[in-house]
Amino acid sequence: MQLIQEMEQRLAGWLEAIAGSATFAALEKIKVETIGKSGILTTTFKELSNLSIDDRKLFGEKLNKIKNTIGAAISNQVKLIENLTITEKLKTETLDVTLPVVNDSFGSLHLITQSVRRIRDHYHSRGFMVLDGPEIESDFFNFDALNIPKHHPARQSHDTFYIDGFDETLLRTHTSCVQIRTMMKMGLPIRMISIGKTYRNDPLDATHSPMFHQIEGLVVDKGGITIGHLKSELRKFVAAFFEVQDVAIRLRPSYFPFTEPGMEVDCRYTKENGRLKITKDGDSWLELGGAGMVHPNVFRASGIDGPAQGFAFGFGLERLIMLRHGITDIRTIFDTDVRNIRHYA
Ligand code: PHE
Q1: How confident is the model at residue 107 (pLDDT cuts 50, 70, 90)?
Q2: Ligand 1 atom 8, closest CA
Q3: CA distance 143 to 249
Q4: Whether the model pTM is above 0.70
């Protein structure tokens, strides 16, 4: 077979061309011309079908050998080029790690993250579990189980985002839903907090944001948990959060459907050089959040039949952060201005 002889003669030339290729493109070209789909070897293979069985076997083997030799040479050369490229890169792109650092600012945790961690630490040290709950909630956990039945006026005061196309599914308007979920799952006793995102259909302005964080607390048992315990726990938390020795807490009667009695949590503060200062003997009162003794209907809805008693509280995290850092616009907390993040690092 004349063609095969010709192939054998050309092999040396091909191998030389391959060994002399410096780029992947050059190799690809040779590959296409020889062992590619319409390469010269591939077309020769097709012609073998015209030969006798014996010849087909003989020449087929020869042709295969040539093909494999070319294939192996090409992959060898590919590896060689790859190694060369890496060596070349290493030569030109090495970093001199002994150079002095130009910019040593490595970023910092966001104010929200910092605060969440501090609060978590405080409650861990007080023996609380720190739990999470879903942000997409059902009407049942966000309202019904918290003694806020359909058409209850309290539903109007929570400007709720409902999820399109899903019945009675919403973005939770508060973290109180986690109270129900925890009691259903664990029964009594419970000592937990939950910190997370909540949503209300409020326009974004200096004091409102459609998304904000709440800290929910729940301490319940079969009995023996009083408003005195609540007040003491609140005092410790507020003092820890504002990093002061002691604070004065006032519980002012208020209404939440899921508490009985319900109350607003105030603490003493004073103005010093125009800045707010939380202090035990401040001359004014500041509202911090809501609290109360858990309503019997809430225990019932959570599947707790026997005797049960305890307290719950809820604080807005951004409000606490604003008070602590003297921030007057909530948008400062959520914007992406790195100068703000650095400032509160
Ligand atoms: N869930 C209430 C709110 O969002 C706060 C609260 C929690 C009040 C627990 C009392 C007890 O306003």
Answers
A1: confident
A2: 290
A3: 29
A4: yes
